[in-house]
Amino acid sequence: LADTMNVTYIHLGGHVELEKYRYVYFSIMVTGYVLILSSNSTVVCLVVIHKNLHEPMYIFIAALLINSIIFSTSIYPKLLIDFLSEKQIVSYEACLIQVFAFYTLSCSEYLLLAAMAFDRFVSICKPLQYHTIMRKRTVSVFLVLAWFVPACHIAVPFIGNANSKLCSFTLKGIFCNNSVNYLFCVASKALLMYGLVVLFNIAVFPMVFILFTYTMILIVAYRSCGDVRKKAAQTCLPHLLVLINYSCLFAYDMIIVRLESDISKAVRFAMTMCIIMCSPLFNPVIYGLKMKEIYKHLRRLFSQTRRK
C-alpha cells in the first residue's frame, strides 16, 4: 500500500482466516491482555506497598514485570484493533517505532535478568559484602542501564532504516518485527552485521553471564550447608525458569524471521501469538508462586478479598 498523502502504509499479512475467526482471536487476546496487566500490576503493587519487599531482588522483579506491561502495551492495542478492522495496515513510521519498542524491551529483559543473577551471586557467594555492593545507587544504575543500553543499540538500525526505499508493502507477520528487513529494496549489509553485534551484546553476552553466575552459585550451594542450598533453590529457580522460557521464545522469533519462507503461515501465526502471550503471563505467575515473600503477601491479599 504505497504513499497516500505522503504516508507509506504496510499491510500486515500474517493473519490466518481473520474473517472467520476475528472474534475468537479478539476474545483470546483481550483476555490475555487483561490478565497480563492485572497479574503483573498486582505483583508490582505488592513490591511497592510492602517495605519488606524493598530489597534489590524484589525491585528487579518489579522492573521486569513493568517491562512486560510496557512490552505488551506496545503490541496488544494495535493487534486488537487489527482483529476488528477490515484492513490490517500500519504506517511505515509506526511500524519502525513498534520494531524499536519490541526489541528494546526484549533486550531489556535479558539485562534485568542479568542484574538479578548478579544480585543472587553476591547474596549467596559474598553474603558479608552484600549490603556494601548492592546499595540503592548500584540498583538504580543497573535499572537505568537495563533500559538505556538496549535503546541506544536499537536506535542505530531504527534511524538507519527510516529513509530506506521499500520494494514490498506486505509484512509476513501480525505486528512489526525484524521481518521489516525483507521489505527493503536493498538490505544494508552494514546494518545486518550491526544487528549481529547487538544480538551478541544484549542477548548472548548477558545469557552467558547469567549461566556463569548460576554455575558459581550452584558450586557454592553444593559445598555449603542445607540453609544455603535452600536459599539458592528458592531464589534462583524462578529466575532460571523465566530465563529458559524467555530464551526459547526469543530464539524462535529470531529463527522465524530468518526462515520465514520455510514455515507455514498457520504455524507462524500460532507461535507469534505464543511469543507475545507466554512470557508476560508466565513471569508474574512464577514470581508470585515461587518467591516465598511475594507469595505470602499474595495469599493475604486474596484472603482479604474473599472476606470482603
Feature tags:
odorant binding, 308 residues, 10 helices, 3-stranded mixed sheet, mainly alpha, Rhopdopsin 7-helix transmembrane proteins, 3 strands, 76% helix
Kindly describe this structure.
The protein has 308 residues and is mostly helical. The chain has a single domain (9-307), classed as Rhodopsin 7-helix transmembrane proteins (Rhopdopsin 7-helix transmembrane proteins), CATH 1.20.1070. The protein has helices at 18-49, 56-73, 76-84, 92-125, 130-133, 136-161, 189-223, 226-258, 265-290, 292-307; strands at 9-12, 89-91, 170-171. The radius of gyration is 21 Å and the shape is globular. The N and C termini lie far apart (54 Å).
List the helices and strands and how they pair.
Elements: E1 9-12, H1 18-49, H2 56-73, H3 76-84, E2 89-91, H4 92-125, H5 130-133, H6 136-161, E3 170-171, H7 189-223, H8 226-258, H9 265-290, H10 292-307
Helix pairs in contact: 1-2, 1-3, 1-9, 2-4, 2-9, 4-6, 4-7, 4-8, 6-7, 7-8, 8-9, 9-10
Transmembrane segments: 23-49, 56-76, 96-118, 139-159, 191-224, 236-257, 269-289
Family: Belongs to the G-protein coupled receptor 1 family.
Subcellular location: Cell membrane
